[in-house]
Amino acid sequence: MSEMGLTSFETIAVWMVLAVAIIGLLYAMFLRRQVLANPKGTAMMIEVWDAIRIGADAYLSRQLKTILPFIAVLTVLMFFSVYIVDPTPEAIERFAAMSEDQLQVVIGLGRAGAFIMGALFSLIVGQVGMRMAVQANVRVAEASRSSFNGALRIAYRAGTVTGMLTDGLGLFGGTIIFIIFGLAAPDALLGFGFGGTLLALFMRVGGGIYTKAADVGADLVGKVEQDMPEDDPRNAAVIADLVGDNVGDCAGMAADIFESYEVTIVSALILALALRQITGNNEWLIYPLLVRGIGVLSSIFGTYLVKTEPGLSGDAMKAIFKGFLTSAAISVVLFFFVALFYMRDVPGGWWRPFVATASGVLLAIIIDRLTDYFTGTHNAPVLEIKKGHDTGPATTILSGLSVGMESAVWATLVIAGTILVSIFVFQGVSAVPQEQFVYILYGVALAGIGMLTLTGNNVAMDSFGPISDNANGIGEMAGLEDSARQIMADLDAVGNTTKAITKGIAIGSAVIAAVALFGSFITDVARIDPVVLAGGIRISWPIVFVGFLIGGTIPWMFSSLAIKAVSRTAADIVQEVRRQFRVPGVMEGTVKPDYARPVAITTLAAQKELVNLAWLAVAAPIAVGLALQVEALGGFLAGVILSGQLLAVFMSNAGGAWDNAKKIVEDEPRDLEHNLGKGSERHKASVVGDTVGDPLKDTAGPALNPMIKVINLISLIMAPIIVTYKDDVLISIVVSLLLLASMGFVIRRSKRAPASMI
Fold first, then answer.
1. Which residues does 373 contact at the CB level (< 8 Å), separation at least 6?
2. What is the pLDDT of residue 2?
3. CA 446 to CA 229: how far, in whole Å?
């Protein structure tokens, strides 16, 4: 960092941020010990738990073997993405003693190494987080036998372990890269962000297909056909369903939030470098790191406060939101003082970066409340879906679609409002239009940083959901007493809402980061060729509009293939469960089902699909950029962002609302004569709505979040290459045709029904 001319305070501050990252990791270890100190319960509970643990471990091991070759190939490509273009001015300044050839090798190795580190950290967050959730679920079930607060505390603190791993590793990786590469950090950070994002996409898609195929298959046969309760031990798919909660919701979402955390710091530092060139102030670079450090400390305080009064009942959502608001308040106050004392010499004044960052925290809170409104069990949208149960599955589905569509509108308008805040806040800082553009985008990037300030809280809220769901399943299969089952059912219902909230925040952060990266895209192209995008990206140009239209289709094709994969695999699960119900003794409960076979079916299907969908996200922007050139690629990115945001929020919230509407019916006293409770026609209608919503809210919807960022980062990495070699028309055409052919192949392969395992 010596070439940057940092003051002694700034140098100490960077090292303090690194220390805070380590504190976050130590806090995760502290909470892990607390959780593991709790008892596991009865022998039957431990038997069920062990089956879940073995299935989850087997799935993640198989998934790792599937994705490692893909990672190896992309590591080599990351090196050449730097090696075949001219070094950036920042890289030349940072490594002034090196020749150009040496510099290209060093930066290439830096990006490739950072890519591996990002992928590794994302993998650690997902795998360790999932294993922590598995360790916690049986302990939550045991705690629910004596205390609502005890069960809540274990579930939330186990989720916080994952949250602090996300915070700690994300901040540690970004800060280490900044310390080593200094001004050239964005070159390596792009690799770091892409590694984390790609792993998140793999884990999101694979885990999402696994969990929802098992869930849908188990519900359709068990609940609808056989009138069984959820997680009935006679249902052969019940263990696969419980395993899926961990590999999809825990491992997938943890990796997902981790890459959002990475990408927002990447976009902020790229734009901060541009502002440093304009103004000469290092504050633009150091401020985002300080904000991230504050976020880790705030999450530690807020998450530890989540608890209710002693007893067999409590308000889990109130306790969780109290912790969230506590962390938010601490963060905003500390942002104020850091900006006041450290950012006072930047052009425009200290208050502008403070307001931009605080607007991101406010955005997270608004999305929290908005998602809670559309998916919470006590609010009008879910009660409207419940009313639709009275007239059957069709009205149930229609009312849920309506809720999801409306929620997407409001979520998008809130994000648009946040971007408008950055526009108004940084308006007039510079009279030069190009400089003003960078200031505004830096404000947008700070909003993304602020939004993910409470990452520790967000991931804790998300992991809380599947931990509670698994605990409820263990309680059902182990035959725990009614009071314990009610506590777990209450926690499970809150968990559905917290999962939906986290998905909303993850999707919103993806859009904010994508907008900031969009500006980085233009800035990076201008460094190679100032003329190409001198007038910005002109949507009125037909070729750019073509790119915009193509970009808008990608989220729809991606979602279609993901849902098809769930549908096909769920059909196999249905057939397998039906077959096992015909085995003498299974229905009577005297013979244990073969739980391993549904686990094997879903594992195999998920592995077949995840690489296909990941390749679609990687190949599409490269093909468009080479075939239509860089301005059309900018239009393509805009289409992906808009279409992906609307579709992701719609699917996530519709699915969450359907799920919670079903839980309201299941909590009613069973009275089939009056069409109430489990087994009633209303219940069957609610199960149909829930099974339709499952692949939307837990597979396709949340997978769009990492997909958007994979496409943005690939475009950012490819843009300098496309501009550098724009005159090599023949090579561009050949490569783009090959990529289009490969995309056609994976789409056809994804649509083709696999041979049945039965």
1. 379, 381
2. 59
3. 47
Of 255, 330, 339, nearest to 295 (Cα)?
330
What per-residue confidence (pLDDT) applies to 680?
A: 84
Share in percent of the chain as helix, strand, coil (round to 5): 85, 0, 15
Q: Which residue has the tokens 């209303």?
A: 682
Indicate the average pLDDT of the chain: 86
Q: Which residues, other chains included, contact 531 with Cβ-Cβ below 8 Å and sequence gap of 6+? A: none
Tell me the three state secondary structure of residue 479: coil
Neighbours of 16 (CB within 10 A): 14
CB 662 within 8 A of CB 489: no
Both structure tokens of 360: 């991101």
User: For residue 338, what pLDDT is reported?
Assistant: 94
| Whole-angstrom distance, CA of residue 539 vs CA of residue 658 | 38
Q: Which pair of tokens denotes residue 383?
A: 């009660």
Q: Cα separation of 395 and 409, whole Å?
A: 22
Which residues are paired to 676 by β-bridges? 671
Say which residue the tokens 């301005």 belong to. Answer: 631
Q: What is the pLDDT of residue 757?
A: 39
CA distance 549 to 553: 7
In angstroms, the Cα distances linking 430 to 347, 426, 427 are 9, 9, 8
Q: Hey, what are 736's tokens?
A: 């783009």
- For residue 540, count CB atoms less than 10 angstroms from its CB and return exposed for 0-12, middle for 13-18, buried for 19 or more: exposed
C-alpha 735/C-alpha 714 separation (Å) is: 16
Best CA proximity match to 713, nearest among 622, 609, 645:
622
What integer pLDDT is reported at residue 269 of this predicted model? Answer: 85
Residue 424 lies in a domain: yes
Cβ count near 239 (within 10 Å): 26
Structural domain includes residue 592: no
pLDDT beneath 70: ranges in the chain: 1-3, 311-312, 534, 674-675, 752-758
Separation CA 489–CA 662 (nearest Å)? 12
Q: d(Cα 10, Cα 286) in Å, to the nearest integer?
A: 7
- Phi and psi torsions of 219, nearest 5°: -70, -40
Q: Judge whether 373 lies within some domain.
A: yes
Report the number of distinct structural domains present in the chain.
Answer: 1
Strand partners, 671: 676
Tell me the torsion sign for CA atoms 55, 56, 57, 63.
Answer: positive
Q: What is the C-alpha to C-alpha distance for residues 192 and 502, in angstroms, rounded to an integer? A: 23
What's the pLDDT tens digit per position in 169-180?
Answer: 989 998 999 899
In-domain check, residue 652: no
Alpha carbon of residue 431 to chain centroid: 38
Name, in order, each residue with C-beta under 8 angstroms of 420's C-beta and a sequence gap of 6 or more: none
Owning domain of residue 414 = 2-538
Give per-residue pLDDT as tens, 406-445.
999 999 999 999 889 989 999 888 888 888 888 998 999 8
Q: Classify burial at 166, counting beta carbons within 10 Å of its beta carbon; exposed 0-12, middle 13-18, buried 19 or more.
A: buried
SS3 671: strand
Distance, CA of 350 to CA of 337 (rounded, Å): 10
Q: Which pairs count as long-range contacts for 412-420, CB under 8 Å and 24+ apart, including other chains?
A: 412/645, 412/646, 412/649, 414/363, 414/366, 414/367, 414/370, 414/508, 415/363, 415/508, 415/511, 415/512, 415/645, 418/359, 418/360, 418/362, 418/363, 418/444, 418/447, 418/512, 419/444, 419/447, 419/512, 419/515
676 phi/psi in degrees, rounded to 5: -125, 145
Q: What pLDDT shows up at residue 453?
A: 83
Please give the structure tokens belonging to residue 238.
């019940």
Q: Rounded to an integer, what distance in angstroms lies between the CA atom of residue 82 and that of residue 88? A: 10
Can you tell me the distance from the alpha carbon of 240 to that of 587, in angstroms, rounded to the nearest whole number?
18
Look at phi and psi of residue 5 and say left if phi exceeds 0, alpha if psi is from -120 to 50, else beta: left
